[in-house]
Each structure stands twice: as structure tokens, then as C-alpha cells.
Amino acid sequence: MALFKKKPAQELSIKDIQLPEHIGIIMDGNGRWAKKRGLPRSAGHTAGAQTFRKIARYCSDIGIKYLTVYAFSTENWRRPSDEVDALMRLFKDYLQEAIRDFKDDSIVLRFIGDRSAFSPELLSLMNENEEESRERDGMVLNIAMNYGGRAELVTAIRDMANEVKDGSLDPAAITEELVSQHLYTKGQPDPDLIIRPSGENRTSNFLLWQSAYAEYVIMDVLWPDFTQDDLNQALIEFAKRNRRFGGV
After folding, report:
1. Active site residues
2. Whole-structure pTM over 0.85, yes or no?
3. What distance in Å separates the CA atoms of residue 156 and residue 137, rounded to the nearest whole number?
4. Are 112 and 142 in contact (CB under 8 A)?
5. Which neighbouring-strand residues pair with 140?
6. How far apart are CA 80 and CA 199, in angstroms?
7. Over its length of 248 residues, how does the chain's per-residue pLDDT go in tens digits?
8. Is 35 helix (H, G, I), strand (E, B) or coil?
């Protein structure tokens, strides 16, 4: 994966390009953003949450149909307990805010990942947000919380194995399409574009199955500093790619 070089803002224009249907974003760099400013890591997560709100609404406004953001991975539990606690408080604040402030938005909220590790209060807020937004007709916003691509595949394989065991699934009937229907994103198109701010060149266990043919754009900007112009540049870069899906 090559690092995408930012271009001057005046060159940006998304009026005449084909937008991706589904974007994934690895929201990376909050801790480094805070460290550069001599602030606690929690301050970086707070700033990153503000960026998330702006970018999610902007994606909805310009007509993106699906947006999946990597909010908290299965590996993030290994971070210091005070940082994890701060993130959980941020999630709670966001979920409470979403119930209040997204009432007039068309955004459909979904949470993907293993929910078993979250507190009953967070689980209740997640369920309430999904229920409140279920009938909306706008962009689907997937928030990946306690999510890992490998864990997602293990869950899918276990579910299919149980179906084989109880006789409801013939092993010969297992196809790529069937696997996809056992993932958290079932019923949704695979991501066309995955954006990774912060300049890191790795997938970090994000949408491993779904991103098989996604275009990656790696940008040298920390997530709290990520702007609408940065997103526009990533979209323009995506539009220039020749997507052959293994063909000629």
C-alpha cells in the first residue's frame, strides 16, 4: 500500500466523479495527535470523536450509501484501563447524543462486532439507536465496536458448522456468498474504498473478508485532523483507479 500524497485544496472537486457505494475508514492516530500536543490520549479520542461526527454526516450529505468506521477493535482491550474506560465513556456520550440529535437525520445506525463484552447500559443504548433509526432510508452507518476481522470469520464458521451439525446446511452448499451472509455486514455490498489516515500501512484486522477487492487510500494525516477536503481527495483518488477485480 502506497501513501497517498495530499494535493492543494483548490484541486478538489467531487462533482463529476463516480462515488463509491461503501466506504470503510480506519480511524487511526488519536493517541499520536494527543502526544504531539502534550495531552492525554483521552483528549485525542475526544477530538477523534468530533471528527467522526463531521465526516459521517458529510458522507451522508454527498450520497454515500454505506459507511463503516473502525471505532474499537478486539485488540484495543489490551490498552491501559484508564484509556479503555475513557473510550467507553465516549461511546456512552455519543450514543446518548445520537438518540437526541439524529432524530431528523436519515442515517441508519448499526453496530457490528461482538457485543458480549459491553456493559448493559451500553448495550441498551446501542439497541435503542438501532431501533430508533431502523425505518430511516438514508446512509447505513456501521460502527465497528469490539470488532476484529478474524473473530468475525471464526463466528461465521462456527455458525455454519452448527447448521451442518443440525442438518440444516449441506457442506457442499457453502459458497462465498453464503459466508458473506454469515458476517456482521450481511445484506450489504462489500466496501469499494477503505481509507486509513495516520500513514500506517496495514489492515489492522478490519473487514478482512469484505475488503478483498477494496481500494486502499493511505493518508498522512492523523484522524482528529482529517477534514472533508481529505475525504474528497481520497474519493478523487478512488475514481482514478482501474478496478479489474482479477480480470484484464
Report:
1. 28, 76
2. yes
3. 28
4. yes
5. 66, 108
6. 24
7. 656 655 554 454 788 899 999 999 999 999 999 999 999 999 999 999 999 999 999 999 999 999 999 999 999 999 999 999 989 998 998 898 888 777 778 999 999 999 999 999 999 999 999 999 999 999 999 999 999 999 999 999 999 999 999 999 999 999 999 999 999 999 999 999 999 999 999 999 999 999 999 999 999 999 999 999 999 999 999 999 887 766 65
8. helix
